[in-house]
Amino acid sequence: MKQTTILGHSTLQVNRIGLGCMGMSEFYGSFDEMESINTLHKAIDLGVNFFDTADMYGWGANERLLGKAFKDRLDDVIIATKFAVMRGANGEFLGLNGKPEYIRQACDQSLQNLGVESIDLYFMHRQDRKVEIEEIVGTMSDLVKLGKVKHIGLCEVDAETLRRAHAVHPITALQTEYSLWSREPEQEIFDVCKELGITFVAYSPLGRGFLTGAIKSRADLETNDWRLTLPRFTDEAIKENLKFVEVIDKIAKGKQVSKAQVALAWVLSQNDEIITIPGTRKIHRLEENLGAFQLELSKTDLDIIQKSMPSATIGNRY
Hints:
Radius of gyration: 19 Å
Shape: globular
CATH topology: TIM Barrel
Strand order of the largest sheet: 3-4-5-8-9-10-11-12
CATH class: Alpha Beta
Number of domains: 1
CATH architecture: Alpha-Beta Barrel
């Protein structure tokens, strides 16, 4: 399996399994800074060079964590961060902002948090519907001209919005949720990305941990875990959605690999240019995820997965 690819409209060569860093600062229960830093360093040692964060993860704490961890290793990493989701002083969510002055402010704050002179890949996290995409991307383009940002990307937009954005400034990457239980991008987005030369970045490729089989009921999650608020993690939804895990488990047992490796290998096998960013705070999980590169799913395997998977996922993503 191809392990690296060039990121969209850039010269950046990235490992196709990157690292999503969100859970190191918030959302998925308790976390430990030293453990996270050790995992980030180990990731570099194992060849991972693409790290994904956002200004809203821990309302700045996640960017600062990466800044601290990568202070002496910036030449070894490609960092993607995001703007648009506003948080208050106590972490409260204040909605989306795509106004030019806000984008400029957010970029300057991210540069400071990360301790870098230029952001490798700057994503619009979600679109503020009060601002046209052309204006948002125009402002992002200005940041490229100023040298504050090297390349720009978008998250969770539809095909038409992606085309409109790309007409203003080359979009290097599109980040959207994609996994065996979230397959919406297959309908249109993949084709547009291919046509325009945009790298597709799959987040939550393990279904926020669900597809690994680690979550069999709500009791498996800590009380402050954000997943408890999501429709796919109600008792009823978990019970039904475990049918996805059963199919993955059957393939995994047959190949003597882990369920996580099957789920990741499936995403990577959809085309040679997809990058995926499973999140983890633990070194053994990181090593397990990277083992997906050694797993070749045959056409027969892919056909079995396609035919055996439930036709629908119970519960919306959010």
